[in-house]
């Protein structure tokens, strides 16, 4: 068994920023309603002509450059977590490989907004087992392309962006992933979904007319499900590892709604100094939210060698995943 080290980090945030006040001009909403219900003030939207693989590319290049300074050159796998792929076929990680021009295997992880945390488990397992030495792991979304801007209940929530980790094998087996827990409730698959475009309901003129090509969400039910599941799942993981909530140095939660994060913190008695949030700036960037938040917390020196980090995310599926990590 080996350990895992984060040898490079990168992010990319698109140039075009939309404020809540910008949204007030195109739909019946208000800055006050959005901020009070979600904690969001801004979101960024991908530039015309760019797609998820481009956002992934920009974040990946920064992470790879940093890893190269630590002597990391060869990447064995590219794992891309996304819910807004460039194409239905092939995987966006293949497109990213082509743009990077590096020789590596590639795969996508597609498990809702929890996809990056799932991908972190997969990448770490490859490295710990000795099957891989270096993995480029990216969470990237151009999810704005799936939004119906006349649906105020969903479109105000999301934003685009990308974050990347280079994960590398080290001999200290106590560093990297320590433990994880994951779960799915597929009976709630239609809480967050795009009804048409898959094999169940292929694209048709009717599906476009009925706006079934856009993301739909039962926001209130999502909220209730998350706050009833996540605290007990995090507690189970902490208990299993003989840890108390405030033994963790930094919590990186999926940035979906500040009220959800606050409810989890309150339930577990987590000190607010141990949580890094940036939902106000970027909204919910789906599979990109966890790596973007981690990048910012890391660059702000909120953590250092040997810090304990808990990554926690939930999303469409309904899926959730928690990872306990030692830097
Ligand atoms: C979406 C969410 C912000 C809605 O907040 P809520 O308090 O549950 O609000 P509701 O959906 O019950 O709507 C309350 C009212 O506000 C209205 N409303 C919805 N969106 C609105 C908007 N953008 N601006 C103004 N009013 C809005 C509704 O139409 C409803 O009006 P009504 O009472 O006249 O019918 C909240 O449920 C949420 O964030 N859920 C979690 C979603 C999530 O995390 N998704 C990501 C998972 S990865």
What does this structure look like?
- It contains eleven helices and 13 strands.
- It has 327 residues and is α/β, with parallel strands linked by helices.
- It folds into two domains: 3-174, Peroxisomal Thiolase, Chain A, domain 1 (3-Layer(aba) Sandwich), CATH 3.40.47.10; 177-326, Thiolase/Chalcone synthase (Peroxisomal Thiolase, Chain A, domain 1, 3-Layer(aba) Sandwich), CATH 3.40.47.10.
- The strands form four sheets. A five-stranded mixed β-sheet has the order 1-7-6-4-5, with helices on both faces.
- Helix 3 packs across helix 4 and helix 8 (219-240) packs parallel to helix 9.
- The radius of gyration is 19 Å and the shape is globular.
- It starts with a strand and ends with a strand.
- Coenzyme A is lined by residues 29, 33-34, 37-38, 113, 152-153, 156-157, 192, 217, 219-220, 222-223, 256-257, 260, 284, 315.
- Residues 29, 33-34, 37-38, 113, 152-153, 156-157, 192, 217, 219-220, 222-223, 256-257, 260, 284, 315 line the site of coenzyme A (COA).
Task: Produce a short descriptive summary.
The chain is α/β, with parallel strands linked by helices. It has helices spanning 20-24, 31-38, 52-69, 92-100, 115-128, 152-155, 205-209, 219-240, 258-268, 279-282, 289-299; strands at residues 3-12, 16-19, 42-45, 77-81, 105-109, 134-141, 161-170, 176-184, 192-193, 216-217, 250-253, 308-315, 319-326. It folds into two domains: 3-174, Thiolase/Chalcone synthase (Peroxisomal Thiolase, Chain A, domain 1); 177-326, Thiolase/Chalcone synthase (Peroxisomal Thiolase, Chain A, domain 1), CATH 3.40.47.
